[in-house]
Recover the amino acids of this structure.
């Protein structure tokens, strides 16, 4: 389980360092260039689902925790926002009242 609330990249970086893997070594394990891995760890790029799963396995991190840190909006969520008027309404309300976001997050965590 991810201990602190960081970005996805920072979480991966800290977990890699905790495991004692060097940047080049871990990039090799993942079959990617060290510069690509560095970009991911510095939140300039996002890993694809397959790479993220490999990273989770090697670093002994939970995929659910890593997915929670991934800020990308996937196609399913875009479809919901585009096709469900209530979703757009909710997002507009959150924009007007940022405290509502925390309430919604707390509610969603209770549902897990």
């Amino acid at each position: 389980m991810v201990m602190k609330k960081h970005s996805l990249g920072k979480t991966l970086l800290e977990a890699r360092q905790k495991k004692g893997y060097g940047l080049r070594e871990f990039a090799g394990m993942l079959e990617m260039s060290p510069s690509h891995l560095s970009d991911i760890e510095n939140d300039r790029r996002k890993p694809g689902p397959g790479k993220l799963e490999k990273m989770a396995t090697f670093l002994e991190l939970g995929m659910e925790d890593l997915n929670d840190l991934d800020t990308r909006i996937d196609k399913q969520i875009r479809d919901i926002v585009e096709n469900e008027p209530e979703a757009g309404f909710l997002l507009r309300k959150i924009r007007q009242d940022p405290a509502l976001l925390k309430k919604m997050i707390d509610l969603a965590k209770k549902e897990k």
